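Hi all, a correction to my earlier message: I attached the wrong file for MFS transporter. Here's the right sequence:
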Amino acid sequence: MIDRLVRPGQWTLTQRVLPPAGLPRRLCTQSAIAAVGGGTYLTGGVVFFSLYTGLPATQIGLGFSFAGLLGLVGSLPAGHLADRFGGRRVWLAGAVVTAAGFGAYPFASGFWSFLLVMAVATVGQLLAGSGQGLYAVAALPAGDRVRVLSFVRAYKNVGFTVGSGLGTAVLALDSRVALLALVLANSVGMLVNAAHVARMPVAHATGPAGHRPRPRPWSVLRDRPYLALATLLSMVSILNVTIFSDVIPLWAITMTDVPKPVLGVLVALNTVMAVALQVPATRGAGTTAGAARLARRAAWSMAAACPVLALSGATHGWLTVVVLGVAVVLTTMTELWISAAQWFVNTDLPPADRRGAYAGASRMLNSVFQMIGPASTTFLAIRTGGWGWWVVAALFAACAFAVRPAMTAATRRPRYGERTVRVPDTAPAVARVPVTGRSTVRSGARP
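and the right structure:
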């Protein structure tokens, strides 16, 4: 049983690197497999549509914006479907649809067919993400979810790194045939991923939650305390990713004297930290107080990173490299801490039979910040000459101050159908993890 294995103080070095045997290890394997395909596609996808299908850059940009819009409006319905039909079924359906979407990419000969295949792949990814999250919550013991999910994320980072390397190697070949092979191999990989999902043990559910009327997915938007908390967490999470992925490279190239190859070293530093520290960074995230503490750490860490980045614009030589390295360490720790806090909020605060819809609302908020984050943070950091970093830091500091009262309000308000005040810290574990693939997982509510 996993609850005998994941006591942090008792772990050996091997147990800190390898997830517990059984379902946790299978979830990590699946995450790594899917991430290899995702990393490969993100590295070479735009190049494929440009060089293989011949689409102009403006149409490619519109297509990806269309996919983002689908992600925004489809997150809640996808989560509701996972609640209605079960996480594993929706996860498997999404994996198959995603494989079909990638397999159809070579047939996108014009703009409208390009939009069609983008829509298919996006819908598949929405379904797969919603189903996977709900399945993991139903299948894992409440006290160990965050720690196992941290393993899943660490293995995802490993798979993504491998996939990015494969995509880079394919691009180096500078061949249409190689680009075609990249996309088709990704489709085959997604089918392998679907086969892996199909072999996951079924998670059955029992309990009174299934006997009350099931509300519409949009009713989640009436839960204002939860949405306020989720907004704060999404803001810290997505702006952190945006600053690391988009703003720091632009800042380093345009506003500092750092050599361009150093950017690769900074990305490698982030990757190593994400793989090695994701599990230790989740310590204490299994309670309301612990999740709030990690969210505050994340926001303060990012607030500290902003003036450090501003300082790098006034330094020279190796000192600039060191300052940027400190900033990357701070942004990476923000990533690790905020993800752990979000796992707790998305799994322990919602009603057991509506976790999919609540997680969909969080993904919808993520999409909003993904749309407004790049332009706003780039303008504040670079177009102002650097003083805008202090504005961004103040925004993160405000989030740090607001997290604790927002968490308190969200935990004191009963969710839909709950007649008593919810106290997540004392909630009993309601699930068991199977050791073999033939076991059955049972939880206290219908997924």
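Sorry for the mix-up. Confidence is low (pLDDT under 50) at residues 1-11, 205-212, 416-447.
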